[in-house]
Design brief:
Distance between the termini: 44 Å
Number of domains: 1
Low-confidence stretches: none
Largest sheet: 6 strands, antiparallel
Shape: globular
Number of helices: 1
Helix content: under 10%
Mean pLDDT: 82
Structural class: mainly beta
Order of helices and strands: HEEEEEEEEEEEE
Length: about 160
């Protein structure tokens, strides 16, 4: 007998719960909150953006980060640093990389590899910071596992 698994069930089993944020313009030369963590700690298993409106031609670097609002710690970069988004076309994928620079596929827009990701965070904000003011929009998605029963993530 053939068994065809439910795609959502497979994703939940591998990556946890998924929250999507409606496409929006990137913050302009500042930091903006894209997701909020509340109720308790969670484990972020993936953080992915997709360009939905071409990013302008001005110089612009993007950094993904996390800023706790309770507990111990300061705002931190999810990875080593910024990545250039100069004239990113529709379909470009951006993925957080805990050990290095964010992954960006500007060449083919075919997709980016999701690194093994398991970042335990407390109540706070998942952020995006840009160094330039350019037009364009990005749709963000995050997957997570509650580490504490009340831990949840919501789009900001």
């Amino acid at each position: 007998m053939t068994y065809i698994p439910n795609p959502m069930g497979v994703r939940v089993a591998l990556l946890g719960l998924k929250v999507d944020r409606t496409t929006a313009a990137l913050p302009q030369t500042t930091t903006g909150t894209i997701f909020t963590v509340s109720g308790g700690r969670v484990v972020i298993t993936s953080l992915v953006g997709e360009v939905t409106t071409v990013l302008g031609s001005g110089a612009n670097s993007l950094t993904l980060g996390y800023a706790p609002t309770v507990g111990v710690g300061d705002a931190t970069v999810l990875g080593r640093g910024a990545v250039s988004l100069l004239t990113a076309p529709v379909g470009t994928h951006i993925a957080a990389n805990p050990g290095g620079d964010p992954f960006v596929d500007l060449a083919t827009q075919a997709g980016v590899a999701l690194p093994a990701f398991g970042l335990l965070v407390d109540v706070g904000s998942v952020t995006v910071t840009t160094t330039g003011s350019v037009t364009g929009s990005v749709k963000w998605s995050i997957t997570y596992l509650p580490f504490e029963d009340a831990g949840v993530v919501a789009a900001a």
